[in-house]
Task: inverse folding
């Protein structure tokens, strides 16, 4: 190995360690920390972040990467790919002044507080000045980068490297009318009985059931664990320590199970990474959308399928006999796939979910390009909800104020959720062409071949390829909603007898 390569790997490895140590602190903050620890934890995370940043954006790293780009210009090799990704991250990080990052963090802290109050009182005016400030800072952030075809490109690129806004819009414009038509058809069909899903479940029993399921998926509890936290998430400390969190909600007792499958999908991606990429910028997933394709695949394409429940339903019914009394597997399957336009994105079903995302994408693009003003947001939000889903939020808490993202200044990543759905269906068609009896395997509770296919074809590549290139390599196609439309149509034809 060249001296320069080992030097840069050493520095990048230390930056990686600092970031992973920060992740442990972040996990602890959500899982274990008493409220009194909050202030000190904030300082500790800020200090670690600052040291990692300073280490990374040093002139030394810059000149090493400059030389290494010439030496390892073949980005098909792991070294070449690592230098390419590191150099891109470096260029981005150098453009954003540390004072700006501090200013943005401070604004976000205040805005989150205001958002909590605004949401509680369902009063947008409390949040409005903070969102205006966040938006001003977002526009300033965009100004640090060379002009792009659309200013939103700069923001999207942080989550989906190499994917321009115009392409995402084209994908969504193609998908939207088909999804709206499907929801209309479902609205006209005989409605499904699902009240039994609201019956409370014993928390420990549904928690244990969720762990039995993800253990069958292949989540290795010697390399991971599931803990209780206010919101489900996955976090990675190393390729051999990938954790998930979960919760129990009285209003939606089965969410514990579906969240476990979702986060397990993220975790399997991380656990399937190439160990040789540890402590380099190639560790982790290709992008948020590709990551979400994995969580959605295990949660929905596997976990809400009939074959899956033909295997697991007897166990579920044995665990909760009174709740599921008189409910057969087909009725249960239909109930967990019920479609109903609703106000809250995170509770949306598969048929309506993407419309929530499209609404947010259009609003974000409008805010960034200046065609939408913050003061008009509640009205615009409600009008779009009527257009897309045919319902009007009764108040701002169930409308424009529902998501936390804009309060911490995150603009640019909602679309990755919908893109994840789209990619999951493309992968699924490819997998079903290659594993002919996959449905039969799932019906027997066998997931090893599926998991291994994903590891070999997707997971092991980590960050080596950009999302568009990766999807093309694996499926032979560009990111395209056709497979997702086929999947939804087939599923709801079955569920609703369309
Ligand atoms: Mg997710």
Result:
């Amino acid at each position: 190995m060249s001296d320069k390569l080992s030097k840069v790997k050493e520095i990048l490895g230390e930056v990686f360690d600092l970031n992973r140590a920060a992740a442990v602190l972040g996990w602890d903050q959500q899982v274990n920390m008493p409220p009194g620890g909050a202030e000190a934890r904030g300082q500790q995370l800020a200090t670690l972040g600052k040291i990692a940043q300073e280490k990374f954006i040093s002139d030394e790293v810059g000149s090493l990467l400059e030389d290494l780009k010439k030496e390892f210009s073949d980005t098909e090799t792991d070294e070449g790919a690592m230098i390419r990704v590191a150099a891109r991250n470096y260029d981005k990080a150098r453009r954003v002044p540390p004072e700006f990052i501090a200013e943005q963090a401070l604004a976000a802290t205040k805005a989150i507080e205001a958002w909590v109050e605004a949401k509680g009182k369902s009063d947008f005016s409390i949040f409005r000045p903070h969102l205006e400030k966040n938006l001003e800072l977002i526009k300033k952030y965009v100004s640090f980068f060379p002009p792009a075809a659309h200013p939103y490109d700069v923001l999207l690129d942080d989550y989906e490297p190499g994917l321009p806004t115009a392409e995402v819009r084209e994908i969504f414009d193609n998908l939207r009318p088909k999804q709206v038509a499907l929801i209309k058809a479902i609205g006209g069909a005989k409605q499904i009985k699902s009240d039994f899903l609201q019956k409370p479940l014993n928390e420990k029993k549904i928690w244990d059931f969720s762990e039995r399921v993800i253990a069958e998926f292949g989540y290795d509890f010697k390399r991971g664990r599931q803990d209780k936290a206010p919101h489900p998430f996955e976090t990675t400390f190393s390729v051999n320590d990938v954790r998930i969190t979960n919760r129990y909600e009285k209003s939606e007792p089965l969410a514990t199970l579906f969240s476990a499958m979702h986060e397990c999908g993220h975790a399997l991606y991380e656990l399937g990474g190439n160990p040789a990429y540890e402590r380099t910028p190639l560790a982790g997933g290709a992008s948020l959308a590709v990551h979400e394709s994995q969580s959605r695949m295990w949660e929905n394409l596997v976990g809400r399928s009939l074959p899956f429940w033909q295997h697991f339903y007897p166990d579920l019914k044995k665990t909760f006999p009174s709740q599921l009394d008189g409910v057969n597997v087909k009725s249960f399957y239909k109930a967990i796939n019920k479609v109903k336009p609703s106000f809250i994105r995170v509770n949306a079903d598969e048929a309506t979910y993407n419309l929530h995302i499209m609404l947010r994408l259009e609003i974000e693009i409008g805010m960034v390009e200046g065609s939408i003003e913050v003061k008009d947001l509640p009205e615009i939000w409600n009008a779009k909800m009527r257009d897309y889903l045919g319902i009007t939020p009764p108040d701002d808490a169930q409308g424009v104020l529902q998501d936390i993202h804009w309060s911490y200044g995150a603009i640019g990543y909602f679309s990755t959720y919908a893109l994840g759905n789209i990619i999951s269906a493309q992968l699924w068609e490819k997998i079903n062409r290659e594993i002919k009896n996959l449905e039969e395997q799932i019906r027997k509770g066998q997931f090893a071949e599926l998991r291994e296919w994903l590891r070999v074809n997707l997971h092991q590549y980590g960050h080596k390829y950009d999302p568009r290139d990766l999807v093309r390599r694996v499926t032979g196609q560009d990111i395209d909603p056709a497979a997702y439309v086929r999947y939804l149509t087939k599923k709801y034809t079955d569920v609703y007898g369309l």
About this structure: The two ends are 61 Å apart (CA to CA). Residues 3-135 form one domain. The chain has a mean pLDDT of 96.
